[in-house]
Structure formats: C-alpha cells, structure tokens
Amino acid sequence: MRLVIASCTVDYSGRLAAHLDLAKRVLMLKGDGSVLVHSEGGSYKPLNWMNSPCSLHIDEPDEDEQIDGVTEVWTVQAAKSDDRLIIRIHEVVSDIVEDLGVDPGLVKDGVEAHLQELLSDQIPTILGEGWSAIRREYPTPIGPVDLLVHDPDGRPVAIEVKRRGGVDGVEQLTRYLSLLSRDPLLVEISGVFAAQEITRQARTLAEDRGIRCVLLDYDAMRGLDDVENRLF
User: Fold this and answer.
1) In the 3-class helix/strand/coil scheme, how is 101-119 assigned residue by residue?
2) Residue 41 is part of a domain; what is its CATH number?
3) Which of 46, 73, 105, 144 could link 137 by a cystine bridge, Cβ 3.0 to 4.6 Å?
4) 37 shares its domain with 68
5) Torsion, CA 65, CA 30, CA 156, CA 215, rounded to 10
6) 193 and 170, same structural domain?
7) What is the model's pTM?
8) What are the φ and ψ backbone dihedral angles of 77, each rounded to 5 degrees?
9) Contact status, residue 62 vs residue 32, Cβ threshold 8 Å
C-alpha cells in the first residue's frame, strides 16, 4: 500500500469526463493495482478511482505543465477499456509505503455466519428448484465470497449474505462479481444479495446492477417458525 498526500489536479476520461481542480488530496495505490483519490470529506467514497487491472506510469511534466507548477504526471490506464486517470502532482506533502500483508477478511457475527450456513444447506428450498451449492467462502484476492452456487441452467452465481443488507453490501458483492467475471470459467457469473432485511436504497442499487435480492427468514430457516399456527 502506498499513500501519498499531495496537491494535485485530477482528470478522468473514458465513459465520462471529470475534472478536479488543484487541491490537497490523498492518493491511495493499493496492492491489487487500483488507484483511489480521496479528499477530507465524502466519508469512505473516493472522489475518483481506477479499478484493477490497470497500469500506472509516472512521467516528467511538459514545459507548459512545469510553468503551472506540475512536478510529476501520473497516468493510470485501464487494461480493458480506454478509461484513463491523469493526476498532475504539484507538491508532495507525504509519501508512505507499507506492506499490509494478507488480510484475514471480515469475521461475520454469529447470525450472519449461521445464515450463511443455513442458506448453503437450503439452496433449492430458498432460491428454487434446480439451484445447487458449489462452495461456501469461495476465495478471491479481496476476500471470500459467502456462497458460490449454480442456477438451474448451470451458470455460476455469487451470493453475499447479510443480517441487514445496505448499500455497502451491494458494493461489496459488485466488487466480487467484477473480479470473478475475469475467470474464464465464471464469465457468466451473476449475483444474489440475501439478507434478513434489505434497505430500499440497497435494493434499488442491486436491481440496477442486475443483482437479485432475496429476503431470508431466520426463524423459518432454523425450523422455529410454526406456519400452521400463524394468525396471518
């Protein structure tokens, strides 16, 4: 991991065009190759970024850029598209490189872990006839996917399990799908976002990205829900 605090401008071109005027920002260069540009505000979300796979080239500024005070020009080029991020460095305040090692991954709480286990055992019951489990905790470089299953047509599906499903969970599943789709054996992979409760914003985002949402009834999955004695 490399963290650079620097005064810089940022230009993005490709599917859209965006420009950030000169300001002090945090540039995060992660071990997987991705580059993120952060500001003081905006919570966890970067101002701009380039997902892996991509390449970074650092060049000397041209004459006009030198006159403007540019000291380095970073060009981040996407490997599979024309998307490009150009960062013009004016002044570096801090430059830190640290090997974070292998992350052990998120440890789920008891309910989420049990939901994942129950869902794995009840795939055809909950998702439908013809669905089958492949593996729990399917490994990826950015963490394990909760469940990898086959749909009735034999196509792979990644499932993210949450107790309360929010936008962060949908973003997490989206990252998994983007990474897994690069595997020739998983190119047709799709996603299912499963939770006891799913927020309206998360459902809207998931459906916009072609991700199916499934509500999980924890009591019914544990066999504690007496359907015959329900009033309604």
Assistant:
1) CCCCCCCCCHHHHHHHHHH
2) 2.70.180.20
3) 144
4) yes
5) -100
6) yes
7) 0.54
8) -110, 125
9) no
Residue among 119, 155, 111, 153 nearest 137 (CA): 119
The answer to whether 90 and 69 are in contact (CB under 8 A) is: yes
- Asked, for residue 193, whether it belongs to a domain, the answer is yes
Q: Tokens 């006159």 appear where?
A: 67
pLDDT of residue 83: 92
Domains contained in the chain, number:
2
Q: Is 105 inside any structural domain? A: no
Q: Give the model's pLDDT for residue 225.
A: 54
Alpha-carbon gap, residue 19 to 17, rounded angstroms: 7
Q: Which amino acid, residue 49?
A: W
- Under DSSP, the state recorded for 52 is S
Q: Compute the distance between CA of residue 179 and CA of residue 194 in angstroms, rounded to an integer.
A: 20
Q: Which two tokens stand for residue 85?
A: 């991020």
Q: What is the pLDDT of residue 223?
A: 83
Q: Domain span at residue 191?
A: 110-222
SS3 154: coil
Residue numbers of the chain with a pLDDT score lower than 50: 230-232
The answer to whether residue 103 is domain-embedded is: no
CA distances from 227 to 111, 118, 124 (A): 22, 18, 19
Give me the count of residues in the chain.
Answer: 232
CA 102 to CA 93: how far, in whole Å?
A: 28
Q: Which of 222, 155, 143, 219 is nearest to 192 (CA)?
A: 155
Report if residue 166 sits inside a domain: yes
